[in-house]
Specification:
The strands form seven sheets. A four-stranded antiparallel β-sheet has the order 3-4-5-6, with no helix packed on it. The chain is built from twelve helices and 25 strands. 24% of the residues lie in helices and 29% in strands. It starts with 8 loop residues before the first strand and ends in a 6-residue tail after the last helix. By secondary structure, the chain is an alpha+beta fold. The protein has two domains: 294 residues, Regulator of chromosome condensation 1/beta-lactamase-inhibitor protein II (Methylamine Dehydrogenase, Chain H), CATH 2.130.10; 172 residues, Potassium Channel Kv1.1, Chain A, CATH 3.30.710.10. Keywords: Repeat.
Length: 497
C-alpha cells in the first residue's frame, strides 16, 4: 500500500520475501517498507515467483522477491527480501509503466522505449536468443525506433502497442497468444499483421490469451479459448489470429486480464461491466453483464486466485457526506429558492450554490442584472436536457449524458467560461467518436477552440481516412474546413503511396 503521505506498507503472504520487509515471515499487520518510503512510488507489477517491481514518479525502478531467473536484474539469482533499485542502462531512463510475466519484467520509458529482463527460455525478453537476461536490455528488433505507448505480459509472452496503433508480440506462442498466425515461439518482436488496418490503443494479457481494444471501441481476442476467455462458443481451441469479439455489447472503453488466470473483462460505454472466461472454476463462453461498477470487482469476486489485474486506488474522503448532501439537493423543490425554466420545464436550484460554483451566476446575482431578483429565470439559448445536465454538474462535478449531446453542453461551457466542464465534455465526445461523426466533431472542436479535441478527432480521421471522407458528416462540412483538413492530412502523409 502507498499512503498519501508517501509511506509504503506491506502485509500478507511473504513467499520469497515478496513483501520487501527483509525476511520471509508473513504478517497480517501492515508493516512499513522502509526502502520505498518517500520515494514517490506510483505503480507496481508482480510475477509468479513471486517477484515484485515498483516504479516511482521520478521514473526509478525497484525490484524484490523471487530471483531464480534473474527477475531482479541484480546480476545474481539470490532472492531479495529488500527492495533494491534496478541499475544498469535503465537507471538513466524515466520509466512510466512496468508489467510482469511469471518470471520476466517489461518496462516502458517516457521516450517510448521498451526494456526487459528475467527468464527468457521462450524468447519473452525479445533479445533474439533464449538465455535469461540478468540486466535490463532494450528491445530493439522490429520495434526499435517506434514509439511504444502500451505494454502487457502473459505468463511467458510480451506484447507492445505503438503510438500509431500497431501491435507486436514475442515469447511463448504455444496457444497462439502472439496473434501472428501460428504457434511458434518468437525470440524477437513480430507484428500482428491481422490488425494492420485497425488502430489499437490498449492490450492486456491473460495467462494464455490476449485482448486488444481499438480506437473505435472494438475488442479483439486471440490465444487459448479453452475456458471461454475469448468469448467464443467453441472451446478447447486455440485462435492464432485476432478475431473481433463481444461486438454485441456495443462500444467498449476498457479491457482487463491478468497473467495469473483465464478471466476476461471489459467496461462498455454505458458503464456496464462484462466478464467471461474461467469464473470461479466455471467456463463462461459469452460476455456476461454484471452489477459491478469496477473491473476490479470481477477479479475480486470471480478470479482464481483473486488478484487485481492492476494496482487499485482506494480513498476515504471525509467530505463525502457534504458531497452527497449537495447531490441530493439538486432539483429538490422542498429546499430550492430559485426555479430555472427551460422549454417550459422547471429545474429547482439554490442561488447560493450557483453563486459559489459558477462565475456566470455569481455575476448575475451580485450585479444589477434583471434576473437578480426574479424567482423564475427563463433560458432560451439551450435545450432542457443540456441545461439540466449543466446545473447537475454544478452540484455533482459529474456529467451524465450521451456523447452526441455533449457538443451542445460544450458550447454552454464555452459561453459560461467553465473550462473544467468543457474538458469533461471533450472526454465524453472522445468515447463516442466513430467514422460517421468524426469529421463533424473535428469541425465543432475547431469552432470551440478545443485544441486537444481537435487533434484527437484529426488523428482518428487520419487513421480511418477512407471511411471518414465518405461519411455524411464529412459531406456536411463547409468548403474551407474541407480544404484545411485535406491540406493538413496531406502534410501528415495520408496520401503518400
Amino acid at each position: 500500500m502507498v499512503l498519501k503521505d508517501d509511506d509504503v506498507y506491506a502485509f500478507g503472504s511473504n513467499v520469497s520475501g515478496c513483501l520487501g520487509l527483509g525476511d520471509t515471515h508473513s504478517t497480517l499487520v501492515p508493516e512499513k517498507v522502509v526502502q520505498l518510503c518517500r520515494k514517490g512510488i506510483i505503480g507496481f507489477a508482480y510475477g509468479g515467483g513471486p517477484h515484485v517491481v515498483a516504479f516511482s514518479s521520478r521514473g526509478e525502478v525497484f525490484a524484490w522477491g523471487h530471483n531464480g531467473y534473474n527477475e531482479l536484474a541484480n546480476g545474481s539469482t539470490a532472492q531479495g527480501c529488500f527492495p533494491m533499485k534496478v541499475e544498469g542502462v535503465i537507471a538513466s531512463k524515466v520509466v512510466v509503466e512496468v508489467t510482469c510475466g511469471s518470471h520476466h519484467t517489461v518496462a516502458l520509458t517516457n521516450e517510448g522505449e521498451v526494456y526487459s529482463w528475467g527468464q527468457n527460455k521462450c524468447g519473452q525478453i525479445g533479445s533474439g536468443v533464449n538465455s535469461n537476461q540478468w540486466s535490463p536490455r532494450r528491445v530493439n528488433s522490429s520495434i526499435g525506433g517506434k514509439f511504444i505507448i502500451g505494454i502487457a505480459c502473459g505468463q511467458m509472452s510480451s506484447i507492445a502497442v505503438t503510438n500509431n496503433g500497431e501491435v507486436y508480440g514475442w515469447g511463448y506462442n504455444g496457444n497462439g497468444q502472439l496473434g501472428i498466425g501460428n504457434n511458434v515461439n518468437q525470440l524477437n518482436p513480430c507484428r500482428v499483421m491481422a490488425l494492420s488496418n485497425t488502430v489499437i490503443v490498449k492490450v492486456v494479457c491473460g495467462l494464455s490469451h490476449t485482448l486488444a481494444l481499438s480506437d473505435e471501441g472494438k475488442v479483439y481476442g486471440w490465444g487459448s479459448s479453452s475456458y471461454g476467455q475469448l468469448a467464443m462458443p467453441i472451446r478447447n481451441n486455440n485462435v492464432f489470429t485476432p478475431e473481433q469479439i463481444v461486438d454485441s455489447i456495443g462500444r467498449v472503453v476498457d479491457i482487463a486480464a491478468s497473467h495469473y488466470n483465464h478471466v476476461s473483462a471489459c467496461a462498455a460505454q454505458n458503464s456496464t461491466v462484462y466478464m467471461w472466461g474461467q469464473l470461479k472454476g466455471q467456463s463462461v463462453t459469452t460476455a456476461m453483464a454484471t452489477p459491478f461498477s469496477s473491473l476490479h470487482e470481477v477479479f475480486a469476486c470471480f478470479g482464481s486466485p483473486a488478484i487485481t489485474y492492476k494496482p487499485m486506488t482506494v480513498s476515504w474522503d471525509q467530505s463525502t457526506k457534504v458531497e452527497e448532501t449537495l447531490k441530493n439537493a439538486f432539483n429538490d423543490q422542498s429546499t430550492s429558492d430559485l426555479v430555472i425554466r427551460v422549454e417550459n420545464k422547471d429545474i429547482y436550484v439554490h442561488r447560493t450554490v450557483l453563486k459559489i460554483r459558477c462565475q456566470h451566476f455569481r455575476s448575475m446575482f451580485s450585479e444589477h442584472w434583471q434576473e437578480c431578483n426574479q424567482d423564475i429565470i427563463e433560458i432560451d439559448q439551450f435545450t432542457y436536457p443540456v441545461y439540466k445536465a449543466f446545473l447537475r454538474y454544478l452540484y455533482t462535478d459529474e456529467v451524465d449524458m450521451a456523447p452526441e449531446q455533449a457538443l451542445e453542453l460544450m458550447e454552454l461551457a464555452s459561453a459560461y467560461c467553465e473550462d473544467t466542464l468543457k474538458r469533461l465534455c471533450e472526454r465524453l465526445i472522445r468515447k463516442g467518436i466513430d467514422v460517421e461523426n468524426a469529421a463533424l466533431l473535428y469541425s465543432t472542436a475547431i469552432g470551440y477552440r478545443a485544441k486537444e479535441l481537435e487533434e484527437f478527432c484529426f488523428r482518428f480521421s487520419l487513421n480511418h481516412m477512407t471511411a471518414v471522407v465518405q461519411s455524411k458528416g464529412f459531406a456536411s462540412l463547409d468548403a474551407t474546413t474541407v480544404k484545411n483538413f485535406i491540406e493538413r492530412a496531406a502534410k501528415a502523409g495520408a496520401f503518400r503511396t
